[in-house]
Amino acid sequence: MDDVLMHAPLFSALDAEGAAAMRTSMEELRVPRGDTIFIEGEPGDRMYVILDGKIKLGQTSPDGRESLLAVLGPGEVFGELSLFDPGPRTATATAVTDSMVIGLGHESLRTWLTGRPEVAEALLQALARRLRRTNEALADLVFSDVPGRVAKQLLDLADKFGQPGSDGVLVHHDLTQEELAQLVGASRETVNKALADFTARGWIQVDQREVMLLDMERLARRAR
Ligand code: CMP
Question: Which protein residues are within 6 Å of ligand 1, measured from CB?
Answer without folding.
Answer: 44, 57, 69-70, 78-82, 89-91, 130, 134
